[in-house]
């Protein structure tokens, strides 16, 4: 029901802009949308795991920036061949992101601290490390094969970076839908104490959720490098807010336990379609954040009423 609701909303928004915004219903515009949602989709996929457990990760934007400069530094090392540098950069980005996420989860669980505070601290730490690693400068000159792959377009409309984002979403969907670990993610968000009393370790699962969020930040860093061909210490500013917005608009409850990674993908699409459509309608840059912010608030309000409705239905079933 959650996925169906946001999907219908996306279709209605697309139809509205197709009818009102010039050049919206063109292959070139849809290609642009797919390019622009790739990074946010990858970040939001990992964020979904954390929010489903009832946590939040504010550090993904800065972790992305750190991973971009780490990856770009390796790929511009003249001592390495193009193939070797790309492989090492990919592994380094994933390792750096996963390590930052694991630290977030471990600190939260070790000292029972709110994830909001811990990840806010990691936001600043990763941002500072990105400036140190890059010497506060942009790193360019990435290998040509890497740049060429980033420019690939499949079937005339799907850029390579969007295909990567879809792959991340599908893997995340499979994990949440068909694995025991995925069931525990939902169970912890619903009732962590019940998971503990059943003999399982919620702490390890929550640390793993943060690790996945960091891992996807590393993948998003590679997508960023593919798209812009530079590593930047100021990359990712505000990206964590867009990722959280995509997750919430996609129907995942901030209280945890309810949601879908497919809904997250649709939420990311809604954000970008709104932004692009308003731009084509000639809306001022100051208006777009107002509209998108209003949509986010409405999504949270809708989630509140939806949860009340579901609880009422459950209580009626219990009475019967």
From TrEMBL:
The chain crosses the membrane at residues 30-51, 58-76, 82-103, 115-133, 153-176, 207-226, 232-254, 261-281, 287-305. It is found in: Cell membrane. It is a multi-pass membrane protein. It comes from the Bacteria. InterPro entries: ABC_transp_permease (IPR001851). It holds the Pfam family BPD_transp_2. Keywords: Cell membrane, Membrane, Transmembrane, Transmembrane helix. This is ABC transporter permease. The lineage of its organism: Bacteria, Pseudomonadati, Pseudomonadota, Alphaproteobacteria, Hyphomicrobiales.
